[in-house]
Design brief:
With 177 residues, the chain is an all-alpha fold. It has a two-stranded antiparallel sheet with strand order 1-2. The longest helix is centred in the first third of the chain and has 25 residues.
Length: 177
């Protein structure tokens, strides 16, 4: 479903991808939620790591409410579609630029004015996604809290074999070097 959505970007393929993703996330969330019952128990390190990895196998944790879960996966598919269909039409040019065109331009063009124009122009596709993105963050945070994380960001940072706050501190330390 994800391949079809990425290859044929339409509302129908967004729906198919959202439905498939919803089923996958729901099944993984059910197993991960069951794993949280062992969070406070003293487990052998290899078992504790397996329980943690089950929860962290999710890229996106959905809330337990089926309507919210469906809403979340629909929003994700819609934002991916908007991003994939996005085009920047430079003023005075005949051709609009796709994401692929812009990727090539940014990789190979060393004219600062043209690179800045392409960068700013491409980012004009995102304002219509603002409300969807806010809802996405709200729902993803709900799902992450179901699994015992402070929010989706903490869940993502937990994938680095250290507490999320320690990871953030390490990134800050490395940035300052």
């Amino acid at each position: 479903a994800a391949w079809v959505q990425a290859t044929y970007i339409t509302e129908d393929t967004e729906v198919l991808a959202a439905q498939a993703n919803e089923r996958l996330i729901a099944a993984t969330m059910a197993l991960a939620k069951k794993a949280t019952q062992f969070d406070k128990l003293p487990l052998p390190p290899e078992v504790a790591r397996k329980m943690k990895l089950l929860k962290l196998s999710l890229t996106l944790a959905a809330p337990p409410n089926p309507k919210e879960s469906a809403d979340l996966t629909r929003i994700v598919a819609s934002m991916e579609g908007t991003y994939g269909k996005g085009k920047y039409c430079p003023e005075g040019k005949e051709k609009c630029l796709t994401l692929e065109d812009l990727t090539r331009l940014l990789a190979n063009n060393f004219n600062p004015a043209e690179v800045l124009d392409a960068w700013v122009g491409w980012h004009k596709i995102s304002p219509p996604m603002r409300n969807d993105f806010r809802r996405y963050v709200e729902l993803a945070n709900k799902g992450a809290r179901e699994l015992g994380f402070a929010d989706a960001g903490a869940m993502w940072r937990s994938k680095y074999d250290m507490p999320p706050d320690a990871f953030a501190s390490e990134v800050d330390r490395l940035w300052e070097q």
